[in-house]
Amino acid sequence: MCHCKINDAKAAAREIQHKVSHLITTNEFSTLMKTISHQNQREEKRIRERHQRKLQRPDTSSDEKQREETMRRWVINISDHDLTPDEISLLRRWMNFAFTPKRVPVKEIITAVEQIFRETPKTRPAGDICNILKKSKPPKCLNISAEERRATKNLKMNEEILVLPADKGNATVVMNKIDYKKQISAMLQDTKTYSRLNDKRHNPTSSTANSLQRKLADLKKSGNLTDSEYCKIKPNDPVPAAFYGLPKIHNVQLAAKDDHYTLATPSTLIPLRSINSCIGSPTIMSPSIWQTCSHRSARTLAIL
Hints:
Structural class: mainly alpha
Low-confidence stretches: 286-304
Order of helices and strands: HHHEHHHHHEEHHHEEEEHH
Number of strands: 7
């Protein structure tokens, strides 16, 4: 396709050249062609130099420095615990890194895909899948070193620190557990936003789940929900909504320290972003919304 376009452009140029040669004198035509040729050579030289710069080997030293600076920002230690190189190497893998298991977690997998087992066709019953899991073997190659595995145990056994993901940015924050608890307690003292449940019997989780399940059962009985949809959205083992905080490291000044970052001013208090996680908790739906909503919106509200 490119060669066809080039040939068409050359043919058009020859045609224009033939027309121009009849409009001006011979000397003028010769001067014009020399000017065009000189301009073409300059443009060709400029393009060649540009491509040569692209193909030249980049400055590896500057790239390596930039990479080291980026990796240094992946771990931010604001606790009193001094991190070892192995712990920093481990924390750089971030929070969603999956370690190679020493054994196949059969029970955990079955629990996680319990809903899939219920909908598995008869050609592949759940018992056969369990047998496959029992016969399976873990990978032989580990994705972390022995030192990093020991660092994992050390961080778990240290009850004075917490390892949290940052509110913004791909970073892992290590902070004192006592400081975290103080800030969370201060947030929950806001009576305008939160109210204390002094009696455990007044926990609304069970009552909300029962109310939602009754309404879903009514939808199923009226034919607006199939058996499969009902099993998917009904509350199973509901839990109260969780409250936690994520450190907002982008709001404070940080200082580089060896292979990680720390606070520029040790006395600085990093604010926490409050998170109300409703994963696994039932949804509250008022009777007025339930009576007025349509079939599609009722299903959407129940899922939410």
